[in-house]
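To close the section, here is one more complete example, presented without commentary so you can practise reading it yourself. The ligand is adenosine-5'-diphosphate.
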Amino acid sequence: MARIEAIANSAAAMVEQVRGRLLAPEAKKVSPTYSTAQLAALCGVDKAHVAYRVTKGDLPEGRLTATGAKREFSLSELRIWTRTYRADRMRPIGQKAVTIAVGNFKGGVSKTTSAMVLAQGLSRLGHRVLAIDTDPQGSLTTLHGLLPEAEVSEDMTISPLCDGSASDVQYAIRSTYWAGLDLIAAAPFLFSAEFALPARQLNEPGVKFWRVLDDGLALARDIYDVIIIDTPPSLSYVTINALWAADGIIVPVPPAGLDFASASQFWALLADLGSNLERQDTENGKNFDFLHVLLSRVDSSDPSSPAVRQWIQATYGEYMLPVEIPKTAVTANKAAEFATVYDVQKYDGSAKTYKRATDAYDRFVELIEQSVIETWRWREATT
Ligand code: ADP
Ligand code: MG
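Output:
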């Protein structure tokens, strides 16, 4: 055990070092700035219109770049623009946040990356987003520029909620380097929730172990537009809570044989679990507003992927999102652990590669935004 401890220590020290180098000079993540063209595209207008609107002086005017020829906007400035120009797509007054869980019991299928890109993408479009990391590995937390082992304390996670010392998650919410995106972090000690949740179910009358997170989000649902939950790659007590709190589920599936098989287990287990829990709690049935399968990490050079893609299409049909996320070197090059395509200020590689990746992610974000808006409309029509 002493030797294992030594390995753990030296690995942790190396992560810290690498992170320092990647995030230099201040070892803090910063969000990118946006050109007039990017701002115009996100607002759905042309550059000339932005130039005209700037002269009216009622929206942030950004800054001229060093040469004075171009304008650039910070992310918070961009969000003021998108909230203005996309006002018809914002959460209607009186409506609650739509909660989305990204799940699949297999690791490495791009759950965390998809959750982060979605959170960043929806925030750029003007929405207020809360991201919740429920994986003790803390990969989503790392993407927010925080080191789970060194910078995350219990009161920044759902741990107190799970052990019963808190009943609402408000205490855990922190703002992040990304305007419009707040985070509830995760760290390895969150594994303790796997003991706390079933223990409370036994010892505390009235506690339903699968509803703890759902109940704990009551206040957040009035503050945020969208809540995005990243889940661990296993069926755990915490995963069950994440899925139960969700209005919509996204299941990323790469077109590879084994990943296809494990995604099918996900649905089987979820169906089993759902009917089981509904039997224990007959007044509170579970309804999902949307279920989406996302083809992720699609490697166009892999000869087997067209066949697997067909199986996936035949199986999931209408649940498939009409977009494919390519396997891309855009972030793999640039330390994917710490950044997504939306963090890249200026891509050094091929412009075509970069555009292919951002186009696919932009489309993904747009499709999910549509599901969110439809959910609000549906709720308005039925209540
Ligand atoms: P999960 O959360 O399902 O375990 P991750 O999002 O952490 O999956 O992704 C696993 C690995 O694959 C990470 O190293 C990530 O950077 C990489 N990855 C994710 N999406 C892509 C993609 N579209 N192209 C290339 N690499 C990707
Ligand atoms: Mg993950």
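Once you have examined the tokens, check your reading against these statements. The first helix runs from residue 2 to 22. The first strand starts at residue 34 and ends at 35.
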